[in-house]
Amino acid sequence: MMSITRILNGLECMNETGNDAVQAARLGFLEWAFCARDGGTPQAARAALGDPAAQNASSDAAKAFVAYLRDATRPVVARPRRRSRLLH
Length: 88
Prior knowledge:
mainly alpha, 5 helices, 0% strand
């Protein structure tokens, strides 16, 4: 199982910037979401943001990972489907 601290420590060691940092953060986030016991839920993301490693993120990749965690705390609001008009 991959912990937030371990993922962030790995991202902190990276010197990548820009798109490369975002890609690394995305992979770290997906690993957390699928491998952590409670990963992927808004509650787990809120808890992860409380980790000191998340609060002190300094590399571009780690900051992007924290941004993914923040996004994961937001509830998903389903948009109503539009009905297609039948054409005769």
